[in-house]
Amino acid sequence: MTETTSAPPPSPPPPPPSATPPSSAITACLSTIVTYPTLLQHEESLSTQASGSLGAYDVMAWMAYLDSIDDALDILKDDSLKGANNANKGTKEHVARTVTIQAAGRTFRISSAVAPGITHTHDTFRKEIQKVVQARIMVGERSVSLLPGSYKLWKNHLLFCTSLLEQSSSTTQQQQSSTTDKLSNEQFQTNCNQNRIPPYLLTSSSQYKHYTATQSAYERSLVRLHKMPAIWLHYAAFVALYDPLKNPTSVRRIYDRALVSLPASQHDRIWDDYLGWITGILPGGGKGGKNDTKGSGGEDWTIISRKGMHKVKYGFESPLVAEWRKRGWGYNQILQSINNNSGEASAGDYRPTVPAETALRILRRHSSYDTTFREDLATLCIARYGRYGEAASLLLQLLNNEGGGAFLSPNGTTRHELWLRFAEVCTGHPREAMVAGVDFDGIVRAVLRGQGVGGKGKGDGLGFEVFDNTSAAFGANDEDGQSKHSRQEKSTPQALNHRLGEMEGTLWTRLAEYHVRAGDFELARSVYEESLDAITRVRDFSLVFDAYVKFEEGVIEALMELMEEEEEEEEE
Prior knowledge:
- By secondary structure, the protein is mainly alpha-helical.
- The protein is about 60% helix and about 0% strand.
- It contains 24 helices and two strands.
- The chain has a two-stranded antiparallel sheet with strand order 1-2.
- A hairpin with a 2-residue loop joins β1 (about 100-105) and β2.
- The protein starts with about 20 loop residues before the first helix and ends with a helix.
């Protein structure tokens, strides 16, 4: 009988390499907390569950614990600055001064020199502050790990982690502000390009590690609190302000995720911040407001309606807008004057880093959500992005009332002002308007002939009114027995003059200028001749005649210059 020998048992796995065990961070945190009697009381109350208390699952107990650590940190940081100033004075006088501090039940005696009774020097006291900060972060992580659905704990923990980056960035801004206040835009951009930090140095810095840790905390909070718009707003503001790589795609994706997660009734809170980040225009503007700013050419139509719905509804501004106001960033309006057009950037001047095409796509999405934003989108296309064809198309939609119902501008713009703006865009940029599908010639001629003005779908389909139609407000009904007679009278010269008012001559001159800028000089000349025959008012006649004379003078001057150039070439 043979004996079978069993295989030897497998050898135990090798011990892990010498590294800090996971509990060492908690051990270091507790060793710091034990030295503070007040904090130790909170720790013991959370560790032992008394009758009638929730113990470690009590949200208010954790909040009191975190508030005690914050109070201690405020005392330590404030007194550390005073102690450092006193130490500097003491070195000049060759006398070591002692500072006594009491925080969270513990007494500190700080001096620049080691002596009996001195607990900390200035260097060891700074290290003690860092230990308390790490203990604060660890306590916050413990609280949210036990109560992951608590909005109060998550918000308190996330705002504290963000404040650490805010303190480190504020010192850097103070060092750079003295060198950038008196630089022009080109000099400032040149210095930024020369002193640009490589990405690998940013990702290996301690500040970037803390940024990634805070970003991870935001992501973990959204697992349970993805229906909280305040968390999304703080998260987007944190990435927009403190991302070392300054990548706009990261911020855009956060806002898009927030719009997908939140119900439509809360989208206005996200869009208010979203638009501020894209355009850099702070809420609070509007016609007649204190933030009104005229453009470089004196046009007051460059004002858009950023009324700040977040502050109107909730009584306080969104995180990103509040931080921009604190730093002096952003614009009050689209065309912000820079030191009276001197070309020098003012202190705190900020322009959004979002690419133009990305910004326009987002703004178009918002105009689908809020149709009243189309007028502001047209203004942005004209004044900032140079998309004149799209602006003409948007203004045409507003004039045609494609949304249905009576025309109502959120900025108080009348149809007369919209017509002037539409004519200015089309005459100034005829090629772009043609590419966008805007037939400016057909629209103006239809208005001047009075065709299709009675409403949509009548005549040639161009149902435009130059002025606001107030007849419906007084109970006028186009379906009564006089409707047919009234429609016949709309094309008469008297009715046309009454309807167009003083706009008839302006429209004729704009139409001729449109053909001039498009290069059709013969067509422009025929428009001038036709307008002189059709106009009945003296004011409009003089307006068109003066424009016609200037056009002919310009043509003659151009021909004379060509003849002079040909003569010079022949002489050579």
